[in-house]
Amino acid sequence: MSALEPLPERIRDSAHDQLVAALLNIQNSQAITEDALQSRSRDIQSIKSLMQQMMTGLGSANTNFPSWRDLQNLQFENLDSSNFTLIGQYPSSMSNAVETYEGIYLGRDKVAIKVVRSVAANEASFCRLKRECNVWKRLWDIDRGKHLLPYFGFWQTDEAFPHLVSPWPANGNALAYVKQMGNKADYAGLVKVQHGSTRGYPEGNPYPDPRKPYSQWTRPANPYGLPAGRHLPAVPRGSRQMGVGLVCR
Known about the structure:
This protein is of the alpha+beta class. The protein contains 5 helices and 8 strands. Strand 6 (153-155) and strand 7 (163-167) form a beta hairpin.
């Protein structure tokens, strides 16, 4: 048979069938691949949803006042930052001096982690904060958390700035609390908080102003404020100075 002669019909039909079969195989392979990708995408979405639920669960961790008391022994410790997990990437509140982040301690207690950006983390700040721990402990012994929200402790190892840890104040500062609650706000409690702030502080130590952003409000307590930063050298915002040897003599 000459190369120019047409192929017999039987051969043409067979070639056509083979071509159609090959195209069907390709189509089926594409469909299988798409199904696999869609299944993988659904699995990824399920995992992300599960992780979100887990983070939400961490965010609603136990914040009852009795659990705060369990952490009071930490007030004389330089805290281990690995025991704390931040919730979210951005601070929940911030000022020129302090950024406050939500965090979880040991997967159980919701805490506020306050990054004091107005103070450089060095040996001087470490020694000063160790002295402040004694003040916090004395205040706790006087007030027992009735009016003043305690600090658990701090850390600054390998950090540019000191990190202070306290219970999470769900209602923000006093002004935010009043704005949120309106006529339902505990105004008598606010007066007691300020009374506890002014009377509870040892002589010579500044007390917190409940109107300030760092004086965050949780019923019935107000935090001790940040007296440690008043007499320490400031550091420009955004600078990154690593902590030095933390040995206080």
